[in-house]
């Protein structure tokens, strides 16, 4: 203190050490925020509860290959017609989200695969 100049003494006396100390301590809310998951992960976790794994993958592919989405729409429309779902026509599927189209595709795909397996089992039992 004795070695300080009058201007430094004045500055020293005017400083509030309580506020400057609190500025140096990390904000607990900021620390919590920085540890939070990135938005992409939150979206993925939300969608993973609503989607088949391959459906999530294909939704990303639709962004780069729109023609693939058209193939999925055609498949869903054809399978829906076979089952009697009259609302799943191409016009309605074009308005549906990527999530919906991909999920419907895998719904019918898995359903068809299980029917094929069931038929094979019945065939094997009949022999």
Explain the overall architecture:
This protein is mostly helical. It is built from 8 helices and no strands. The protein has helices spanning 6-14, 17-24, 28-35, 39-48, 53-64, 66-83, 90-95, 98-126. Helix 5 crosses helix 6 (66-83) and helix 6 (66-83) packs across helix 8. The longest helix is centred in the C-terminal third of the chain and has 29 residues, at 98-126. 11% of the residues are buried. The mean pLDDT is 80.
Q: Describe the main β-sheet briefly.
A: none
Mean pLDDT: 80
- Radius of gyration of CA atoms, rounded to a whole number: 31 Å
**What's the total count of β strands?**
0
Q: How would you classify the helix and strand content by structural class? A: mainly alpha
Overall geometry comes to: elongated
Stretches where pLDDT is under 50 for at least 5 consecutive residues are: none
Strand percentage: under 5%
**Helix content class:** over 70%
Helix tally equals 8
Separation of the first and last Cα atoms = 103 Å
H/E series: HHHHHHHH
Quick overview:
79% of the residues lie in helices and 0% in strands.
């Amino acid at each position: 203190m004795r070695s300080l100049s009058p201007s430094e003494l004045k500055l020293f006396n005017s400083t509030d050490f309580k506020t400057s100390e609190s500025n140096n301590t990390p904000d607990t809310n900021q620390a919590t925020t920085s540890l939070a998951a990135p938005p992409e992960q939150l979206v993925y976790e939300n969608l993973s509860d609503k989607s088949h794994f391959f459906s999530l993958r294909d939704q990303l592919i639709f962004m780069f290959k729109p023609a693939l989405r058209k193939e999925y729409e055609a498949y869903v429309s054809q399978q829906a017609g076979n089952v009697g779902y009259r609302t799943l026509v191409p016009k309605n599927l074009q308005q549906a989200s990527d999530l919906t189209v991909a999920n419907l595709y895998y719904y019918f795909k898995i359903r068809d695969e299980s029917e094929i397996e069931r038929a094979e089992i019945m065939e094997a039992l009949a022999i």
